Amino acid sequence: MKPESRQALCHVTMVSCLCVAIVYMGIFEGAFVQVGYEHYAEAPVTSLPAFLAMPFNSLINLAYVLLGVYWLQSNASTPEHPTELQRARYLKDIFAGMALVYGPVQWLRIGTQTHPAAVLDQWFTLPIFAWPVAWCLYLDRGWKPWLFLTIECLSLCSYGLTLLHPCGFEVALGIHIAAAVCQALHAHGRYGSTCSGAYLTLGILSCLGFVVLKLYDHQLARWHLFQRLTGHFWSKVCDVLQFHFAFLFLTNLNTCQRLPPERKIH
User: How many other C-beta atoms lie within 10 A of the C-beta of residue 259?
Assistant: First the structure.
């Protein structure tokens, strides 16, 4: 493993452990989260152990881990300059590390149905959406580690909205999604190609599916198609897809940004 990859995974691990410590200190005890199987359309199977009580909503979390491993092992798509290659690999591997952490955290929430696990699930969602914003700013402004750190810190702090209002998380998530989409559109307008445009479109559609299918989990269960594989399950599929398309879009821009127009991927 390259040094920048180890550094990226170390940074993700350190921040994740800090978040876990903060949550279990009780700082977010007042945060409103949904806990209990009644909030999911998938019926729990009592004969299975807790971590598989909702088998489909549980096992889908393996997809995040597989996605993280896949992108961690993939090569960064950059020009030949060694420094740029290291930076691109670090950006990619931070994102991959987030996927590796996020899958088990979501599974923990599904399996335990406890307040701290639900808080961690929500909280970890925000910096994942913030990282594409940082990555796009890197393409615009160059390597500015303090700017990236500031973005992620602001993202983590925004979860404090949950202590002010029951819909605080939804507000914070909406802001994150809007910021990520706007920054991606801006970066595509400056450096993109037909290929990156396709990835961006598929990513936005996946994000839409992620939000809508999760919100209408119970309503969709009236339809036979969503009774076994529920809306929540398909929202997780869309979430994994938007993660993957974000990787494809951002790594594609890493190449397109530095190529002359006649060499861009179409």
Answer: 13
Q: Answer for the pair 199, 245: CB distance below 8 angstroms, yes or no.
A: yes
Q: What does the DSSP 8-state code read for residue 38?
A: G
pTM strictly above 0.90: yes
Q: How confident is the model at residue 129 (pLDDT cuts 50, 70, 90)?
A: very high
Give 209-262 as a DSSP string.
Answer: HHHHHHHTHHHHTTSGGGTSS-HHHHHHHHHHHHHHHHHHHHHHHHHHTTS-GG
Of 17 and 262, more confident: 17
> Considering just the CA atoms, what is the radius of gyration of the chain in Å?
19
Distance between alpha carbon 182 and the CA centroid of its chain, in Å? 16
Contact between 137 and 183 (Cβ < 8 Å): yes
Q: For residue 134, is it left (φ>0), alpha (ψ between -120 and 50) or beta?
A: alpha
